[in-house]
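subagent[fold] <- orchestrator: predict structure for attached chain, return tokens only, no commentary.
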Amino acid sequence: MLKIPCTSKIDHMSAINQPAARCKDGDTVIFQTMDCFDGAVTDKGIFDREGKKEGKYMANPATGPLYIEGAMPGDALSVEILDIQTRGWGVMGTGFGQNAFINYKGESEMRVFNYEDGFVKIGSKQIPTDIMIGVIGVAPAGDPIPTVTPDSHGGNMDCNRIVTGSKILFPVAVEGGLLAMGDLHALMGDGEVFEYGLETAGEVTARVKVVKNAVKKLAIKQPTLYQGGRVMTVASAKTYEDAVRLALEAMYEYLLARGWEKVDAGMLMSMKCDLAICQIVDPQITVRAMMDENLI
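subagent[fold] -> orchestrator:
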């Protein structure tokens, strides 16, 4: 089985990135990933701040990219997450003075949490882990986009439904797709409200398939996620309003492409479509719109 090491990493998703590996349509590939700090924080919580300032570490590195034979602009790339394995510890920083915590002051620190037994202790509580992928996507057609930024190509969506057993479709914009992923979290709530999830490193086993002409025929225009019996359209924008609009437009067009009449589709969405915030802390906000698959 093809395995891409964590040393093959990028900090921008771009059409000009040279593939770290190539595979055939339908292959299974293992991505070995770094955490979002790129190894700048040790298992003792020691942060190499000087090395970070000197450019020694990438921000939110993603392993890849992977060139998938047969993937062409206008297609979609289906990525089925077969397994995620991580190390037994993760790191979180503080978010005082930023975003939702802009009105609060506090010390900047890095704290290490161990979770070898599948639980993380915070305060007096033991909470089960729920491992997810923070950064995953394909190359955009235009200018390079930093891996820390989410958009229609995917990227740093920080959607906690991207877990083992899920499948996500990305609209392909460049030949080969150029799939990359990283930024694993052992646990993260919707919003990632204090700047970080429980940041970790590990390995993702994924099966990749090309869905021909999916952008036009199936209305796959934003990352489209299938998990837990639900289909989700995931969208990112500078504002909440625009992210919500893009996610709902993608869901509406998804329904229309599957035969729903336009008024029925809109009414169905008002009856059964749920909205959730994936994250609020990245350069763009990410929202998902969710429908039960059996209604579609």
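orchestrator: received. Logging for downstream: The chain has one domain: 2-212. The mean pLDDT is 97.
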